[in-house]
């Protein structure tokens, strides 16, 4: 049963990859209505008819299938502000008949397109450019004929179109297009956007989607950041970078956005803001060190590696941990110092002090690691105390502890609170020792390790039984191996007041990494942001002139990114210190407003709406109220989140919270959160009691745990609003706070429907959800009906 459930949950997780609104489309083919298969009539028979042939059943009715997209590759070259985009994609006709269609490419909003070219199967075609008003007529006509409002998302945009014929049966049609555009720069930040969406026009997930962007600048590059996709950024010196994104078997539905800035100096700082209405604004700070290969800009560090060698580490776990430790020692920088402590029933240091990373010391360390054996208990308190005490009192270097364990404290002090108190006092008043914890396997105490890292301004990570310790630890070490600024602090202009910062305390800044800070602000004005820290023990201060505007409609991704991190922080408070009404209410309000939905937040939303007696037709998750099995499993999962510190579900919960707290892209964080909550459900399944197991089955035989995960995916965040699927319609989350007496019904596709769109273009992404939608516009509740 567990294997079957695992497959089902993974399938549901696979479906979540495509969650989100139907966004601005890349090039797509609108197939002309193929109509029914025409009947074939025999010609008149000359002369006497022959005997009637035996009856042959007529062929099955023809069923039309939409086109599939086989691959979608994008290659972009940006030189300063000039971007050349080349798109290569193949459409496949899965039907047994020839089709005709129109290839359309909605122009990105605000883009200044030049040199647009298009090839179909290697043949150059002339594309027609339609202005936004004429393009709107085409969109609306397609919506009327196809009864599908998805294209309304592009209303108000210019459009390139070209007729494609024939589209041969059971064959592919390759389309290549290229265009050049001049990118806009605002407040020192240049933005590139590629509209990436094939969800409505591919019959199946796209096997391969890739974007490669080569960025070259005449000035040093600093910020290189995608708020939309989890990209890989490879730097080639200070003035060049390659950005890559690749996904398989997905239905892309989110615009690809890249932001970059240029600046001289050791650290670049970019401020982005969003503010509408009278509420406090949102801001995002990106601090990026120089990517120069000059090692003089790297801070020399002291680092202590602490490895658990208790009996439970025997076998593959210890072998992988030893390889990871050897890699870390070999990767130390020339001026670093290090120590190794192994612990089981007692702690044993290798050198008894910090030593230089000289070849002889590294060789001795590698021999020590190679000969480690697993036996004994787990003296976590003693090992941590010795590791922190290694630091000399007069050192000005940053001090890091890499702590690897697979169990609970069983020897010496075992009380969590006393261990935390020891770490806090030993780290010193300035708290400059960072303890990074790795929990290996499912027997660790996640609450203890997470509180240790929280206390020392570090981070924790967990290695599940099916993961490789060496890969995870080595990857992490590469990120912290080259600090450029430690004990980081930010000071903001006096004209503004900043609140609810995430992270609440600044981490150290490392070469190759980017500090991402989000928060709220009140007030407005121009002034200096001061970045302070220590460089090789000496204070360093950098100033950047920034503006916090009174109004800023761009960068509308920032509020949701802030909400994601804020919810992660609040959920961590609930997990580590217990819940209270204030924390729960804030999580519910933010999750509902910004569409940050997981099984944990969904259960809290359900409880809130049940307490307020929200009508069923307005509920965010009506399945919880109508299906007692789903509700029971949701409650059990949430209660486990509150009470469990060890076990697979606890590890998954800790990993879920971490993915939200450090989110840089909301969709990626939600996908990671869905993966971890799916993993938590799989770990909990064997522990469900026989009564609960029976209760967790629906009438159709589908497990309630699977239904729980699936129900949380019926959410869309579009046009700044969250919509939940209730019955057969999409419901705006603001509906339940609106006077139902002020309701106007509008029929889908009617004249009133398109007039409402023309008067209020902001409703286009809401209309694009489907034929039945309820949303709030001003004081009025609109209901779109079939």
Please give a structural write-up.
The chain is an alpha+beta fold and 786 residues long. 29% of the residues lie in helices and 32% in strands. The strands form 7 sheets. An 8-stranded mixed sheet has the order 6-5-9-3-2-12-15-14, with no helix packed on it. Helix 13 packs across helix 17 and helix 14 runs antiparallel to helix 15.
Structure keywords:
eight-stranded mixed sheet; disordered N terminus; 37 strands; seven-stranded mixed sheet; 19 helices; 786 residues; alpha+beta
Poorly predicted runs: 1-25, 37-47, 687-702
Category by helix and strand content: alpha+beta
| Topology, number of strands | 37
Taking Cα atoms only, what radius of gyration do you get, to the nearest Å? 29 Å
Taking the alpha carbons of the first and last residues, their distance comes to: 42 Å
Beta-strand portion reads 25-35%
* Oligomerization status of the protein chains: single chain
How would you sum up the global shape?
Answer: globular
Mean pLDDT comes to 86
Strand order, biggest sheet? Answer: 6-5-9-3-2-12-15-14
- How many strands, what sense, and barrel or not for the largest sheet? 8 strands, mixed
Helix share bin = 25-40%
Q: What is the count of helical runs?
A: 19
